[in-house]
Oxidoreductase (Mangrovimonas yunxiaonensis), 213 residues
Amino acid sequence: MSELFEQLDFVENPQYEQIISDLQQQQFSIVETFFNDEEVAALRDALLEKQADDAFKKAAIGNKVNENVVKTIRGDHIFWIDETKVNAAEGLFFNKINSLITYLNQTCFMGILYKEFHYAIYPQGTFYKRHIDTFQNDDRRKLSVVCYLNHESWQPENGGELVLYLNRNGIEVPKAIYPFPGRVVIFESQILEHEVKPVNTKRLSITGWLKTR
Ligand SMILES: O=C(O)CCC(=O)C(=O)O
Ligand SMILES: [Fe+2]
């Protein structure tokens, strides 16, 4: 048996196994140190460099929506990351994400074929109202992945909790998750409604989706 695994180049990964069992049992998983301090700092620098270049644009919901309407729903600014034009930190980011995707496909046959990731900045006072991550006419988003790039000094009082609205035996149970640096939250895009509470301090992240065909 071990010979067979060797042939398939398969090495069991405890962190990924935890993610899989969390997703199966509770539809979300929180990984505390998916990225280490240096990786977070490098990704945060990359994000801030993009911001300095004015590369961010106001996040839009769907398309051609009145900007004032948009602002009442979400106030973040985003920048889509092109995997073919990455710097060192972003290259490392995609190595880790790709390794997770390979693992999910090998062990759970999830059929993840595509991914899309963007940086997000939530300026002070902004939020993202309760929503679901799949579009009406497109249900290819399977897993949502949120990676927090805030400074090490981030406090709960800074706000910006991600709240997942879980359903436990027909009862809604909100689960608040603080955006601490290095933390990655993975959840079922098609099932879990969620929101970002108003932030009191600029909040930084990378958000993305693992998608099927
Ligand atoms: O930043 C977060 O915690 C979640 C962001 C989110 O829900 C989204 O971009 O769809
Ligand atoms: Fe979302």
In short: Residues 131, 133, 144, 194 surround fe (ii) ion (ligand 2) (CB under 6 Å). The CA atoms of residues 62 and 135 lie 8 Å apart.
